[in-house]
Amino acid sequence: MDVKAVREAFPILHQDVNGHPLVYLDSSATSQTPSKVIDKIDEYYKNYNSNVHRGVHTLGSIATDGYEGAREKVRSFINASNTKEIIFNRGTTTGINTVAQSYGMDHVGEGDEIVLTQMEHHSNLIPWQQLAKRKNATLKYIPMQEDGTLAMSDVKDTITENTKIVAVSHVSNVLGTINPIKEIAEAAHEKGAVIVVDGAQSAPHLKIDVQDLDCDFFAFSGHKMCGPTGIGVLYGKRELLDKMEPVEFGGEMIDFVNLYDSTWKELPWKFEGGTPIIAGAIGLGAAIDYLEEVGMEEIEKYEEELAAYALEKLDAIDGVTVYGPKERAGLVTFNVDGVHPHDLATVLDAEGIAVRAGHHCAQPLMKWLNVTATARASFYLYNTTEEIDRFVEGLQKTKEYFGDVI
Amino acid sequence: MSFNNLDTLYRQVIMDHYKNPRNKGALDGEHVAIDMNNPTCGDRIQLQLKIEDGVVEDAKFDGEGCSISLSSASMMTQAIKGKTVEEAVEMSKLFSDMMQGEEVDPEKFSLEDIEALQGVSQFPARIKCATLSWKAMEQGVDESEEA
């Protein structure tokens, strides 16, 4: 992978922040956007902005082709068997809530179990808490190993005949753990449960094949994979989606509307009430084109190298604790003795280095780690080992700075 | 911005309050207790106020957070002790103004150590850290008045 060429494609990277060249290490929160994506969105608004699936005019047809063309790009990107299985929405949170409110409301009853892990992002936790409360169902958590991974024996012990839904993240946004989705899906299916995968942190970084994983639902977000904010995707197996009720009702999703009853459009549109996120979907399509041009396998390999490089450097600094397993996705979450992560992030920011500090929307995981907050540096295809060097230098300076004043 | 600019944020006084917090701990006897979180970052403060006849007789806090939130809590408890609740709430409003970068009339608010927090206004992402304990105090005053 030619990282120099990759960096050229991202205009935002070429600027100074607080007097230093920007080092952006917060892609797990939001990734940066290549020119090709920005141009595609620009082109949409300049040339063919109009509503889709309505009317007969020319611009509307071009917009519809663009929107539905993006759906086909997504289908191919995750190897779904049919575009009917690809629902556009606002992001991962919306996708998981759709499954909880539609599939969950119809299939989970009193005494049934919903199985989660303690490493879930709030977006794959609270929808299930709410569902369990409404249905008097039980939430169960697959215990974690000390290094923040799941053991298949624990997965199998936790899922029972009463389990209706297993909801698990593909990649932890804090620990970087890559969960064995295919095996967990098999364990869930053996007991007659469905598996809902939070793919927010995996779709941008790993080659996804939903048929090979055999997951029933897979949700992810455009803005973490070089796309614009406000667009996301819910994949669902067609036989499940077909039987599910929509959760948002209104324009665009209907077939016939009578005074006292209505019928729905076919898949996927019955789940896309209201004017869809047209520019967002077209932008996401362009992001997928870009990622595939670079190559997902290449990206995955490169990020693995970056993460290994960062881990090695951090291990060499006294007083730095890194959380999570050795084999991980491209991020490192850590703490520095005696320096609160907020203070750390502020000092790094003064050096032009952007990292995340806080609980990363994973408060139960923070409790498990026995910390209130952590700092996180996350990498993407445009980051370099030189940037990691600057980040590590920044950490050293932070330690010295706080060492002096405290 | 350089490390020198950071010194406007991390003043010696702030670090002193962070390292040697005043009024840390828990109150005995009757008091109002407020737990407040900063949900965006996970900081939390437990503040206890002993209010008698409209005067803050004592204040203690405990909590977890960054240097800014904990030093601010330490300074806040120091500042409001012995003040009437009206004065304490007025101080909180002036402190908010100061965080928004406004000049504070020294006639109205004798800043003392709190002056050191003025630099926080240049770091928008950290203002909520500084105001957390003050918000907790305002809530405590409300609760004591309702009781």
From TrEMBL, chain A:
<dbReference type="GO" id="GO:0016829">
    <property type="term" value="F:lyase activity"/>
</dbReference>
<dbReference type="GO" id="GO:0006534">
    <property type="term" value="P:cysteine metabolic process"/>
</dbReference>
<dbReference type="GO" id="GO:0031071">
    <property type="term" value="F:cysteine desulfurase activity"/>
</dbReference>
<protein>
    <recommendedName>
        <fullName>Cysteine desulfurase</fullName>
        <ecNumber>2.8.1.7</ecNumber>
    </recommendedName>
</protein>
<dbReference type="GO" id="GO:0030170">
    <property type="term" value="F:pyridoxal phosphate binding"/>
</dbReference>
<keyword id="KW-0456">Lyase</keyword>
<dbReference type="InterPro" id="IPR016454">
    <property type="entry name" value="Cysteine_dSase"/>
</dbReference>
<feature type="domain" description="Aminotransferase class V">
    <location>
        <begin position="23"/>
        <end position="391"/>
    </location>
</feature>
<dbReference type="InterPro" id="IPR015422">
    <property type="entry name" value="PyrdxlP-dep_Trfase_small"/>
</dbReference>
<dbReference type="InterPro" id="IPR015421">
    <property type="entry name" value="PyrdxlP-dep_Trfase_major"/>
</dbReference>
<keyword id="KW-0808">Transferase</keyword>
<dbReference type="InterPro" id="IPR015424">
    <property type="entry name" value="PyrdxlP-dep_Trfase"/>
</dbReference>
<dbReference type="InterPro" id="IPR020578">
    <property type="entry name" value="Aminotrans_V_PyrdxlP_BS"/>
</dbReference>
<comment type="similarity">
    <text>Belongs to the class-V pyridoxal-phosphate-dependent aminotransferase family. Csd subfamily.</text>
</comment>
<dbReference type="InterPro" id="IPR000192">
    <property type="entry name" value="Aminotrans_V_dom"/>
</dbReference>
<dbReference type="Pfam" id="PF00266">
    <property type="entry name" value="Aminotran_5"/>
</dbReference>
<dbReference type="InterPro" id="IPR010970">
    <property type="entry name" value="Cys_dSase_SufS"/>
</dbReference>
<comment type="function">
    <text>Catalyzes the removal of elemental sulfur and selenium atoms from L-cysteine, L-cystine, L-selenocysteine, and L-selenocystine to produce L-alanine.</text>
</comment>
<keyword id="KW-0663">Pyridoxal phosphate</keyword>
TrEMBL record, chain B:
<dbReference type="GO" id="GO:0051536">
    <property type="term" value="F:iron-sulfur cluster binding"/>
</dbReference>
<dbReference type="Pfam" id="PF01592">
    <property type="entry name" value="NifU_N"/>
</dbReference>
<feature type="domain" description="NIF system FeS cluster assembly NifU N-terminal">
    <location>
        <begin position="10"/>
        <end position="129"/>
    </location>
</feature>
<dbReference type="InterPro" id="IPR002871">
    <property type="entry name" value="NIF_FeS_clus_asmbl_NifU_N"/>
</dbReference>
<dbReference type="GO" id="GO:0005506">
    <property type="term" value="F:iron ion binding"/>
</dbReference>
<protein>
    <submittedName>
        <fullName>Nitrogen fixation protein NifU</fullName>
    </submittedName>
</protein>
<comment type="similarity">
    <text>Belongs to the NifU family.</text>
</comment>
<dbReference type="GO" id="GO:0016226">
    <property type="term" value="P:iron-sulfur cluster assembly"/>
</dbReference>
